[in-house]
Design goal:
Number of strands: 9
Strand order of the largest sheet: 2-1-3-4-8-9
Oligomer: single chain
Shape: globular
Radius of gyration: 21 Å
Helix content: 40-55%
Mean pLDDT: 91
Order of helices and strands: HHEHEHEHEHEEHHEEHEHH
Low-confidence stretches: 1-29
Distance between the termini: 52 Å
Strand content: 15-25%
Structural class: alpha/beta
């Protein structure tokens, strides 16, 4: 009987502790989950350096596998990851992944910030192709391999491996760029001309970081999108390529943390 009463007392004490205001306050102050969304011609490993820093600083992280099939379907997929989190979320997108997070944030009240890393931040109805051609400077087109025909009639796009280093990752060491070229994931050609849905950056605070030596998205275009979004912070990394998160993970991680801690 004594053991039973002791057990009941411990259970009541545990429940009381878990439901006390102090514990609730601690739960409320937990750091948001960071969901990283890669773009075309990359994969989730492109965030490895950023993930290491975020983990060291105590942030839960999900580096998502972006399907790269289409704006709405990719946005819905990432949106499902957002909905599955029990915490506030910071959505981070690279390149075409910026289009995806702009779509994915809609309808999810737990998204507290959007971070665009050398990324597209389209307005409602805009396309990646339209934004990429809005300003001169992109040299991506001539570096693309002939489209790969798929069984369903769609087409996939890759960057030619011998053009990948100079075009996509000029400030990354040779050996690393070779691996990135070989493991690049293709994007469906149709995704580039699919119109974006509602622009989440109109209601969710945004931050931008990009390199001034980006050859995929003209830096002038990213500056335009950041200004249009009334970004809370903009970082321009001198000499950085399109994969600024690979070559300058510390700068990217610190901007994400700034967005995560903003009130």
């Amino acid at each position: 009987m004594k053991n039973l009463l002791a057990g009941l007392a411990l259970t009541v004490a545990a429940v009381t502790a878990l439901t006390s205001p102090n514990v609730f306050a601690q739960a409320q102050s937990a750091k948001p989950t960071v969901i990283l969304v890669h773009g075309a011609f990359a994969d989730a490993s492109s965030w490895n350096g950023v993930v290491k820093i975020l983990h060291k600083d105590g942030y839960p992280v999900v580096a998502a596998a972006n399907p790269l099939r289409g704006v709405k379907s990719d946005g819905a997929y990432i949106g499902s990851l957002v909905a599955a989190q029990g915490t506030p979320v910071v959505l981070v997108g690279h390149s075409y992944g910026g289009n995806v997070i702009t779509e994915a944030a809609n309808g999810h009240g737990n998204v507290k910030a959007l971070v665009y890393v050398s990324a597209f931040a389209p307005d409602t109805g805009e396309t990646v192709a339209e934004l990429a051609g809005k300003f001169p400077g992109s040299t991506l087109g001539p570096t693309l391999a002939p489209p790969v025909d798929l069984a369903d009639g769609s087409k996939d796009l890759y960057i030619l491996q011998d053009k990948f280093h100079a075009q996509f990752a000029a400030d990354v060491p040779d050996a690393q760029a070779v691996l990135m070229a070989a493991t690049q994931r293709p994007i469906a050609q149709a995704a580039l001309s699919e119109k974006s849905g509602d622009a989440a950056w109109k209601t969710v605070p945004s931050w931008f970081i990009y390199g001034d030596a980006d050859r995929n998205i003209p830096p002038q275009a990213i500056a335009f999108m950041a200004k249009r979004a009334d970004a809370k912070g903009v970082v321009v990394v001198k000499g950085a390529s399109h994969v600024v998160m690979v070559s300058h993970p510390y700068a990217v991680a610190k901007l994400i943390e700034k967005a995560a801690s903003a009130q």
